[in-house]
């Protein structure tokens, strides 16, 4: 079996190209000349006998082999960071950063308050929260760019362990005084009479909604789509439109009274979960373990 180690500088340069999308961008971030970055990439490609990037006029697009190497490089970085933190702990300098990838809505609204409460007991632990589309959160965990993922999911994810989950009730959100506000609950067949603000077609909710519409032979034509839930809420506030989301993502607007919601009666739509995810096999730092234990113990207040 072939065994060799990658040069740490080469991996660092490679990951910077992945992150910036170009050799020039990587060189600027690393404060080196572009030729130095190009040499490191060429050396890696020669060693692996594979292209790591597809070269395009507008930048570098990582290949499947490149993606595999990027995942490896990020795992190496994460393992090294965890090791240094454990050594610092032995020396009395116990400062760790927990990296969390979260879907818009709940993660951005509820988690910062939990970070503050947790840090009251563990003041040396830091948090880094990155908000991105729900469908991308698990990939961040898989590639070691995040220790913990907080997202909505309807299916099991490869290499992902679900540490804690909570039902993700889907609701129709509208302004107070909307005609549908008189209903205690709604069915998706009632929505076609009103303008709809829906998530983009690539989102997990939109995919399940499309499946439900097919099942009931209903066509929903959104008047507005966005990958940002907050944009849909502002659109709904200014019109007779309705948007669909997990109740937890809209809690800030609902608690303020600016918007109201009505539950959607559909088992398929409500089969999803809000999940706290970790990698199935990669060890977690002590700080991440502590925070997850805190979340589980504090779950009734969290939701």
UniProtKB/TrEMBL annotation:
One of its GO terms (molecular function) is DNA binding. Residues 6-63 form the HTH lysR-type domain. GO terms for cellular component: cytosol. Keywords: DNA-binding, Transcription, Transcription regulation. InterPro entries: HTH-type_LysR_regulators, LysR_HTH_N, LysR_subst-bd, WH-like_DNA-bd_sf, WH_DNA-bd_sf. Belongs to the LysR transcriptional regulatory family. PANTHER family: HTH-TYPE TRANSCRIPTIONAL REGULATOR YBHD, NITROGEN ASSIMILATION TRANSCRIPTIONAL ACTIVATOR-RELATED. This is HTH lysR-type domain-containing protein. It comes from Achromobacter dolens.
């Amino acid at each position: 079996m072939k065994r060799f180690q990658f040069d740490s500088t080469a991996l660092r340069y490679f990951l910077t190209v992945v992150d910036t999308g170009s050799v020039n961008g990587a060189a600027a971030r690393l404060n080196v000349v572009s030729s130095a970055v190009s040499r490191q990439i060429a050396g890696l490609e020669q060693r692996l006998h594979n292209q790591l990037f597809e070269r395009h006029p507008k930048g570098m697009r990582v290949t499947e082999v490149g993606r595999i190497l990027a995942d490896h490089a990020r795992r190496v970085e994460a393992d090294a960071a965890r090791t240094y933190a454990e050594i610092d702990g032995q020396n009395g300098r116990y400062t760790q950063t927990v990296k969390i990838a979260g879907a818009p809505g709940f993660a951005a609204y509820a988690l910062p308050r939990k970070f503050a409460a947790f840090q009251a007991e563990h003041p040396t632990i830091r948090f880094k929260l990155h908000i991105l589309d729900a469908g991308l959160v698990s990939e961040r965990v898989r590639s070691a760019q995040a220790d913990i993922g907080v997202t909505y999911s309807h299916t099991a994810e490869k290499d992902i362990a679900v540490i804690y989950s909570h039902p993700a009730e889907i609701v129709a959100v509208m302004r107070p005084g909307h005609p549908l506000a008189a209903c205690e609950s709604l069915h998706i067949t009632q929505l076609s009479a009103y303008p709809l603000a829906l998530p983009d077609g690539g989102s997990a909710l939109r995919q399940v909604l499309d499946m439900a519409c097919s099942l009931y032979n209903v066509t929903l034509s959104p008047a507005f789509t966005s990958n940002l839930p907050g944009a849909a809420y502002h659109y709904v506030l200014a019109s007779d439109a309705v948007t669909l989301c997990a109740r937890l993502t809209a809690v800030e607007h609902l608690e303020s009274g600016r918007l109201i919601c009505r539950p959607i009666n559909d088992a398929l739509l409500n089969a999803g979960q809000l999940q706290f995810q970790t990698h199935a096999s990669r060890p977690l730092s002590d700080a991440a373990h502590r925070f997850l234990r805190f979340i589980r113990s504090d779950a009734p207040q969290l939701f």
